[in-house]
Design goal:
The chain is of the alpha/beta class. About 35% of the residues lie in helices and about 15% in strands. It has 2 domains: about 5-90, no CATH class; about 100-400, no CATH class. The strands form 5 sheets. A 9-stranded parallel β-sheet has the order 11-10-9-8-7-6-12-15-18, with helices on one face. Strands 5-17-16 form a 3-stranded mixed β-sheet, with no helix packed on it. It is globular, with a radius of gyration of 29 Å.
């Protein structure tokens, strides 16, 4: 056997082939001019005269070792090499992306979306129930959570829009646009964005945490470039909106204001025990995810409508990135399923995140109460509202810059009128 012969679809990569198929009995191999150059470049044969294009020549080759460990090691080395070559032949293709054609409704019924969103509830509740109840009790006892309820922020952005920031990979496209937001547009974000938002001095002062795992502690700085202790100190200037089930160690290190909300969980035992521990009646319906809690807070506590959503990909991007920074989850590209994005292209996601997407779309269809909350997806990527036949009309697709401009363009009129007549004539006409 010889470690020679190019894989036709990936020039320069190699596969094992039998000696009889590769070489003559004298231990030489007949190769083309192009293959000869490749062998020399890769150090597999010594430099020598190369045949003219269209001709061939014989080159000496060394037999493969017969022991299994060495063969396995060589195969692994070639597997790594092939992986590297695959990465090299990937090309960046410029594309003019446009939103898919709108469709009137999802292909699944509203009830089916709800069922899918709740598909893993029983497993999750059985695994986390005792931990949730323990965290509620600790947060009430150790941090006086019942005197720091979320109602202190009630109506903060009533009758105004709010931008809700998830942590998907498309966030890198437009989060800088947040700096153009006027103060009367609310901004609220998942805590996972904290490091990136602090580093870039984005005007978001409210961050939401829900997860009961201690993973939320390192994640609060994951998107930034400084140390975790730096972000802990920086938290003094920001407000944390925390679920009562949040990890007490996270609550302990947060130095800014904290307001607590409760969570409705589809588990009878939890819902029976929870009122015995806390008197917090501000119960959020969150769909099992922090972004859902952000949306609920913006709509039902702040009183905002519409909600603009960014970073709400619910999927990996085209380069298999799960966040807008290098993340531990980029290395976990396993167990994924194919989905279509809002541009009609194939992307991949985890089933659990598609369940979160189903919950969001269920809310866009009126949720359980039949509300008329308006959702505008300004993610500029991802799968929210997207199906093979098009994007559902219940979630409007729009660039974040367009959304902000629609709430600030009225200010341009006065700016234009304050200019000398000679300078403002064209602008005046083009305002409409």
């Amino acid at each position: 056997m010889f470690l020679l012969r190019p894989w036709p679809k990936i020039p320069g990569a190699w596969k094992l082939r039998d000696r009889e198929k590769m070489a003559d009995p004298k231990g030489s191999l007949t190769v083309s001019a192009g293959f000869h150059s490749t062998l020399v470049a890769d150090g597999k044969i010594p430099p020598g005269p190369s045949p003219v294009d269209g001709d061939s020549t014989s080159v000496p080759v060394l037999p493969m070792p017969d022991d299994v460990p060495t063969l396995k090691a060589m195969l692994e080395a070639e597997r790594i090499r092939n992986t590297e070559l695959l990465a090299q032949v990937r090309t960046s293709v410029p594309m003019l992306l446009s939103f898919q054609t709108p469709i009137q409704a999802p292909p699944a019924s509203k009830k089916a979306l709800w069922r899918q969103a709740c598909a893993n509830d029983e497993i999750t509740s059985d695994s986390w129930r005792d931990i949730w109840l323990d965290h509620v009790a600790r947060n009430v006892k150790e941090f006086d959570a019942d005197s720091r309820m979320i109602d202190q922020l009630y109506g903060a952005y009533a009758y105004k829009p709010t931008i809700c920031c998830a942590s998907g990979p498309s966030l890198k496209k437009n989060r800088a646009m947040l700096k153009k937001c006027p103060d009367d547009i609310g901004i609220i974000s998942c805590l996972h964005n904290f490091g990136a938002f602090v580093d870039e001095e984005l005007p978001c002062k409210y961050f939401v945490t829900l997860d009961a795992g201690d993973v939320t502690i390192p994640e609060m700085g994951e998107g930034g470039k400084k140390t975790l202790s730096y972000y802990q100190d920086a938290s003094k200037d920001y407000t944390l909106i925390a679920g009562l089930v949040a990890h007490p160690d996270l609550i302990k290190i947060w130095k800014g204001p904290i307001y607590f909300f409760n969570v409705t969980i589809p588990d009878q035992k939890y819902m029976e025990e929870m009122p015995k521990i806390t008197r917090n009646r501000w119960v959020y319906s969150v769909g099992g995810n922090t972004f859902g809690a952000s949306m609920y807070h913006a709509a039902w506590i702040w009183g905002s409508n519409p909600l603009a959503l960014i970073g709400a990909d619910f999927a990996f991007d085209y380069m298999h990135k799960f966040h807008s920074w290098d993340s531990q989850y980029d290395k976990k590209f396993q167990g994924v399923i194919p989905c279509v994005d809002i541009f009609g292209n194939r992307v991949f996601s985890w089933p659990s995140y598609q369940n979160f997407r189903c919950w969001t779309e269920f809310q866009a269809l009126g949720g359980g109460s039949g509300h008329n909350l308006e959702m505008i997806n300004c993610t500029e990527g991802g799968t929210l509202g997207a199906y093979p036949d098009g994007n559902i009309v219940q979630i409007k697709q729009m660039a974040l810059g367009q959304f902000i401009d629609s709430y600030t363009r009225w200010r341009k009129l006065k700016e234009t009128l304050d200019k000398p007549v000679a300078e403002r004539q064209y602008e005046w006409v083009s305002m409409w």
